[in-house]
Design goal:
It is found in: Endomembrane system; Vacuole membrane; Prevacuolar compartment membrane. CHCR repeats lie at residues 392-543, 561-772. It is a peripheral membrane protein. By secondary structure, this protein is an alpha+beta fold. Among the domains are: 131-263, 7 Propeller (Methylamine Dehydrogenase, Chain H), CATH 2.130.10; 344-540, no CATH class; 858-909, no CATH class. A 5-stranded mixed beta sheet has the order 1-27-26-25-24, with no helix packed on it. Strands 2, 3, 28, 29 and 30 form a 5-stranded antiparallel beta sheet that branches. A hairpin with a 4-residue loop joins strand 14 (156-163) and strand 15 (168-175).
Length: 962
C-alpha cells in the first residue's frame, strides 16, 4: 500500500454528508440503482424510490413482511424483488419473487400510489426445496427473456429463465458445493458474463470460485479457484472480469482461471466497480476503522481515500458513488473533471502520472498531446533534451512542429532535431520546409547512412513521405547529386533528373540515353526543355532521338504499315525548332532527314518554309560570327600597340585565314542555294495549283538574300512575267533578258507578247549602245506585229546612243508592207463602190419597172407551175399549196435575210454596252481598227430622228465624240 500514491481525484458532493429521507422508516435490507433512481428495500416490506440527491419520490408495499433482495432492470423499467409474504399454508414457503412495472401505476381510486405488479412467482417448490437465499442476480438476455439466478446457503443456484411476465419459464438448478457445512457452501456472489453467443455464470462461495457454461446442456461447471470470499466482497468489472475480495488481496478471474491480484490488506467488506476504478471498503483490524478507497489500478494510484463508519450498502448512480451507512446516513462521492486532476498533478510535477491518467481514461488526442507538451517543456527546462524530445515526438499531429523545432534550434541539439523531423516525415505530416531542414541536418552531420535510408528506404513507386522537389533541391545544393537523381527518377520528375545530369554533372550522353527510355510523350516534353543544351554538345545523337520521336521508328514494326492518322498523333518537327535557335546547321540536318523519310507530314508547309529560310540565308553560323567579330576587335586593339613589322605579318596571316574562311563560306552558300532552288521546284510541281510552301515568304526570302534563280522561278510559276524581266533588267543581263522574252513572250505557248514592248522600252531608256539587242527585239515585234512603227520610233528615240541604221531595215519593211495594204484597201474600196452602185440600180429598177416572172417550175416541189401561183420579188415562184398559211416571205431567201437582221440587231445592242466596247479597244493591238469597224457596220454612225428617240433607243448620234 505504501507504494501507491494518493490523490484527491474525487470529491464529496452535497457539501458534506446526506441521509436517507425520513419517509424510509424500516431497516434497509437491499438497494439497487438504475434508470436515474435508487430503489431501497426495507424489513417492513416497503420499497422506496429515491431521486437525485436521495430525495424521496414514493414508496409502496412490495411484500407483507420483508424485502430481502431487489434489482432494477436496465432495458425495461421493471423492478424485481424477493421478499417474505404472509404464509397461507404450511406447505408453501412465504418467499416469493415479484415483478413490478414502474411505468404503470395503480388507478387513482386506489388507496396507495404503487406500480402494478405484473407477476408473482413462488421460488421454492417440491423440486426446488426451500433454503436461505444469500444472493440474487438478474440478466436481461433479450427482452422479454430474463435469466434469474438465486444463490442459496446449501451450495445450490436456482435459475429461472423465460418471459416472467407471462410465466413462460423454465427452471433448473446448478450445484456448486455439496458439503453439508452451510458456512462454507453458501453462495456469496454471482456474476454473468456474456461473450457473443456464450453465456457464463460466475458463482462464489467462501471456499471456491466456479464458472458455469450455460450454453451447454446440462450446464458445465468449471472450478477456477479453491478460495472464495464472504458476502458483498464480489463484483464484476467493465471488462467482464470477476473481482473477489479477501483479507489479503483482491483477485481478478477470467474464464480460464485467476488473473492478476492486488495486495490490499484488510477485510474487504464491500467491493464495487465505477468507470474503471476499483471501489473498496476495507476494515482495519488494528484500529477498527473502515476506509473507503478508490483505486486506479492501471496507474497504480489511490484516486480517493475516506474514513467512514459502518457501511451497509455501496451503489453507483447519477455519476456518483453513494455509500449508505447502517445509521441511514449517506456519502456521495463524485469524480473531478480532467482539467482539475491534471492541474493537481502539474503543480506537483507529476507529468508521468498525468500522461498515464489521460491515456487510461481515453481522453481525446489533443488533451493527451497537451499533457505531453507540458511534460516535454518540463524536461527541456531541466536540460534533459533526449527525454524531452521523446515526449515531443508523441505530440506530432497535434502540436505545431515549429514549436519544437525552434526550441532545439536554439539549443543547437541537431541530433534531437533530426530525430523529430524523421518522425514527422514517417507520419506524413512534414511540409517542404521540414524536408529542407531534415536534409540539411543530414548534410551537416554528413550522415550518409541516414540520408540513404531517408531517400532510398521507401517502398512503392510514387509514395513519398516528403516533398520531392524540396529533397531534390537540397541534395543538389549540398552536392549529393546521386541522391537527388534517385529521388527524381523514382518520383518520375524527369525534368529534375535531366537538370542534374546536364547542369551539374555535364553527362550529356547519359541524359540522351535517359530520354530515350522515356515514354514518347514525356520524351517530347523533356526535349523541348533541354534540347538546346543537348544540341550544343551532342547534335548528332540529339537529332537521332528527335527522329525517333517525330517518325514511326520503333513503332512501325508494332503497328504494321504507317497511316496518316497515326502520323498526325506524332510530335511535329516544328515543335522542336526553338532548341536549334543557336545551331541552324543542325536544324537543317534534322529537317532534311525528316523530309527525306516522311513525305506526307501535316506540317509539311512549315517545314519547307524553315528549310527555305536556312537554304537561302547568307550565313548560317551567326554565333560564330559574333565570336569572330569579337576576335577581330581584339586583334585591332593588339595591332594598335605593336610595331609596323609585326603589324604587316599579322595582317598577312589574318588575310590568309579570312580568305580561306570566305572561300569555304561561299562554297557552303552556293550549295545551300542549290538545295533551296531544288526545294522550290520540287515543292511546286506542275500538277499542283498551290505549292507546299508559303509563296509570299519565299519571295521575301529570295529578295532579302538576292537569290535570283529562286525569284525567277517563283515569278514564272505565278505568271508574273513582267516581274521576271524586271529581274533581268535590274541585273543588266541583256542576253538573259532576250532569252526570257523568247520563252515567256510567245503567245502560242500561253506567253505575254507585250513583254517585247517592255523590253523595247527598256533599251530605249538604257542610255547606252545596244543596237544588236534592239535589232533582235525588233525582229520579234515585227513578227508578231506587237507595236505600231510610230511607237517603236518614239520609244527608241529616247536613247541617244542609237542611230537610224538600227531601225532602217525595220521601217523599210514596214513601209513596204503598209503600201501593199493600202493598195489592197483601194481595190476593196473600188469593189465595194461597184457593188453598192449595182445594188442602188437594182433598187431603182424594182421601184420603177415591172418584173416579169418567167419560171415554169415551182421552186419548192420542182413540178410544173400552175395556178394558183405566188411570185416573190426575189424571182422565186411557188404553188400556193406549197406555201404555208399566211406565208408572206420567200422560204428560200427568208433565213439569210433573218440572219442579217439578227446580226444588225446584235450590233445595235452591243453598241449600248459601253464597257465591252472600251474593253475591245483596250485589248486590241490597234484600237483604231475597232472603232473603224463599229463605224463601218453603221453601229455608231446611225442618225437619230430627234433627241427623244435617241434617248429611247440608246444609239449614238452621228456627232458622237469617238
Amino acid at each position: 500500500m505504501y507504494q501507491w500514491r494518493k490523490f484527491e481525484f474525487f470529491e464529496e458532493k452535497t457539501s458534506g454528508k446526506c441521509s436517507i429521507p425520513e419517509e424510509v422508516t424500516g431497516k434497509i435490507n437491499c438497494c439497487s440503482s438504475g434508470r436515474g433512481k435508487i430503489a431501497v428495500g426495507c424489513d417492513d416490506g416497503m420499497v422506496n424510490l429515491l431521486d437525485r440527491g436521495l430525495k424521496f419520490n414514493y414508496g409502496f408495499q412490495a411484500h407483507a413482511t420483508s424485502v430481502l433482495f431487489l434489482q432494477q432492470l436496465k432495458q425495461r423499467n421493471f423492478l424485481m424483488t424477493i421478499g417474505e409474504d404472509e404464509q397461507t399454508s404450511p406447505q408453501l414457503s412465504p418467499i416469493c419473487l415479484k415483478v413490478f412495472d414502474l411505468d404503470k401505476m395503480q388507478p387513482e381510486g386506489s388507496s396507495t400510489t404503487s406500480p402494478v405488479c405484473i407477476q408473482i412467482l413462488r421460488i421454492f417448490t417440491n423440486q426446488f426445496p426451500e433454503a436461505k437465499i444469500t444472493s440474487f442476480l438478474v440478466l436481461e438476455e433479450a427482452p422479454p427473456i430474463l435469466l434469474i439466478s438465486i444463490g442459496l446457503d446449501n451450495g445450490c443456484i436456482y435459475c429461472i429463465k423465460g418471459d416472467i411476465a407471462r410465466e413462460r419459464i423454465t427452471r433448473f438448478k446448478l450445484q456448486v458445493e455439496s458439503v453439508t457445512d452451510k458456512s462454507s457452501a453458501s453462495i456469496t456472489g454471482l456474476g454473468f458474463r456474456v461473450d457473443g453467443p456464450a453465456l457464463q455464470l460466475f458463482a462464489v462461495t467462501p471456499t471456491s470460485v466456479s464458472l458455469f457454461s450455460l450454453q451447454d446442456q446440462p450446464p458445465r461447471r468449471h472450478t477456477l479457484d479453491q478460495i472464495g470470499c464472504d458476502v458483498n466482497a464480489v463484483t464484476m468489472s467493465d471488462r467482464l472480469e470477476l473481482i473477489v475480495g479477501r483479507p489479503e488481496a483482491v483477485y481478478f478471474y477470467e474464464v480460464d482461471g485467476r488473473g492478476p491480484c492486488w495486495a490490499f490488506e484488510g477485510e474487504k467488506k464491500f467491493l464495487g466497480w465505477f468507470r474503471g476504478y476499483l471501489l473498496c471498503v476495507i476494515a482495519d483490524q488494528r484500529n477498527g476503522k473502515n476506509t473507503f478507497n478508490i483505486y486506479d489500478l492501471k496507474n497504480r494510484l489511490i484516486a480517493h481515500s475516506l474514513v467512514v463508519r459502518e457501511v451497509s450498502h455501496l451503489i453507483c448512480e447519477w455519476g456518483n458513488i453513494i455509500l449508505i451507512m447502517s445509521d441511514k446516513t449517506a456519502i456521495s462521492v463524485g469524480e473531478k473533471d480532467m482539467e482539475s486532476k491534471l492541474d493537481m498533478l502539474f503543480k506537483k510535477n507529476l507529468y508521468t502520472v498525468a500522461i498515464n491518467l489521460v491515456q487510461s481514461q481515453q481522453a481525446d488526442a489533443a488533451a493527451t498531446a497537451e499533457v505531453l507538451r507540458k511534460y516535454g517543456d518540463h524536461l527541456y527546462g531541466k536540460q534533459d533534451y533526449d527525454e524531452a524530445m521523446s515526449q515531443y515526438i508523441h505530440t506530432i499531429g497535434h502540436l505545431e512542429p515549429s514549436y519544437v523545432i525552434q526550441k532545439f534550434l536554439d539549443a543547437q541539439r541537431i541530433y534531437n532535431l533530426t530525430n523529430y523531423l524523421e518522425k514527422l516525415h514517417e507520419k506524413g505530416l512534414a511540409s517542404k520546409d521540414h524536408t529542407t531542414l531534415l536534409l540539411n541536418c543530414y548534410t551537416k552531420l554528413k550522415d550518409l547512412e541516414k540520408l540513404d535510408v531517408f531517400i532510398k528506404g521507401e517502398d512503392g513507386v510514387g509514395e513519398h513521405k516528403f516533398d520531392v522537389e524540396t529533397a531534390i533541391r537540397v541534395c543538389r545544393a549540398a552536392g549529393y547529386h546521386e541522391h537527388a537523381m534517385y529521388v527524381a527518377k523514382k518520383a518520375g520528375k524527369h525534368e529534375w533528373y535531366l537538370k542534374i545530369l546536364l547542369e551539374d554533372l555535364d553527362e550529356y550522353q547519359e541524359a540522351l540515353q535517359y530520354i530515350s527510355s522515356l515514354e514518347p510523350s514525356q520524351a517530347g516534353i523533356t526535349m523541348k526543355e533541354y534540347g538546346k543544351v543537348l544540341v550544343e554538345h551532342k547534335p548528332v545523337e540529339t537529332i537521332e532521338i528527335l527522329m525517333k520521336l517525330c517518325t514511326e521508328e520503333g513503332e512501325s514494326s508494332k503497328r504494321g504499315t504507317s497511316n496518316g492518322t497515326y502520323l498526325s498523333m506524332l510530335p511535329s518537327p516544328v515543335d522542336f525548332l526553338n532548341i536549334f535557335i543557336h545551331h541552324p546547321k543542325s536544324l537543317m540536318d534534322f529537317l532534311e532527314k525528316y523530309t527525306s523519310k516522311v513525305k506526307d507530314s501535316p506540317a509539311q508547309v512549315e517545314i519547307h518554309n524553315t528549310l527555305l529560310e536556312l537554304y537561302l540565308s547568307n550565313d548560317l553560323n551567326f554565333p560564330s560570327m559574333l565570336q569572330e567579330n569579337n576576335g577581330e576587335e581584339l586583334n585591332l586593339r593588339a595591332r594598335s600597340s605593336t610595331g609596323v613589322a609585326s603589324l604587316s605579318r599579322a595582317e598577312s596571316k589574318e588575310k590568309h585565314v579570312v580568305e580561306g574562311k570566305d572561300v569555304h563560306k561561299e562554297k557552303d552558300r552556293l550549295e545551300r542555294h542549290k538545295k533551296g532552288l531544288s526545294l522550290l521546284k520540287t515543292g511546286w510541281p506542275s500538277d499542283l495549283e498551290h505549292p507546299l510552301y508559303d509563296v509570299d515568304l519565299s519571295i521575301i526570302l529570295c529578295e532579302m538574300n538576292a537569290f535570283k534563280e529562286g525569284l525567277l522561278f517563283l515569278y514564272e510559276k505565278m505568271k508574273l512575267y513582267k516581274e521576271v524581266i524586271a529581274c533581268y533588267m535590274q541585273a543588266h543581263d541583256h542576253e538573259g533578258l532576250i532569252a526570257c522574252c523568247k520563252k515567256l513572250g510567245d503567245s502560242s505557248k500561253g506567253g505575254d507578247p507585250s513583254l517585247w514592248g517592255d523590253l523595247l522600252k527598256y533599251f530605249g531608256e538604257l542610255g547606252e549602245d545596244c543596237s544588236k539587242e534592239v535589232k533582235e527585239v525588233l525582229t520579234y515585234i515585227e513578227r508578231d506585229d506587237i507595236l505600231p512603227p510610230i511607237i517603236v520610233l518614239q520609244t527608241l528615240a529616247k536613247n541617244p546612243c542609237l542611230t537610224l541604221s538600227v531601225v532602217k531595215d525595220y521601217i523599210a519593211r514596214k513601209l513596204e508592207k503598209e503600201s501593199k495594204l493600202i493598195e489592197e484597201d483601194h481595190r476593196s474600196v473600188e469593189k465595194y463602190q461597184e457593188d453598192t452602185l449595182n445594188m442602188r440600180k437594182e433598187i431603182h429598177d424594182l421601184r420603177t419597172n415591172a418584173r416579169i416572172f418567167q419560171l415554169s417550175k415551182c421552186t419548192a416541189c420542182t413540178f410544173t407551175l400552175d395556178l394558183p401561183a405566188v411570185h416573190f420579188m426575189c424571182m422565186h415562184s411557188f404553188h400556193q399549196r406549197c406555201l404555208g398559211d399566211n406565208e408572206k416571205e420567200c422560204p428560200e431567201c427568208a433565213p439569210e435575210y433573218r440572219s442579217v437582221l439578227e446580226m444588225k440587231k446584235s450590233l445595235e445592242q452591243n453598241s449600248k454596252d459601253h464597257d465591252r466596247f472600251f474593253q475591245q479597244v483596250k485589248s486590241s493591238k490597234d484600237g483604231f481598227s475597232v472603232i473603224a469597224e463599229y463605224f463601218g457596220k453603221g453601229i455608231v454612225s446611225k442618225t437619230s430622228n430627234g433627241p427623244t428617240e435617241a434617248q429611247k433607243s440608246g444609239s449614238f448620234p452621228t456627232s458622237s465624240g469617238f
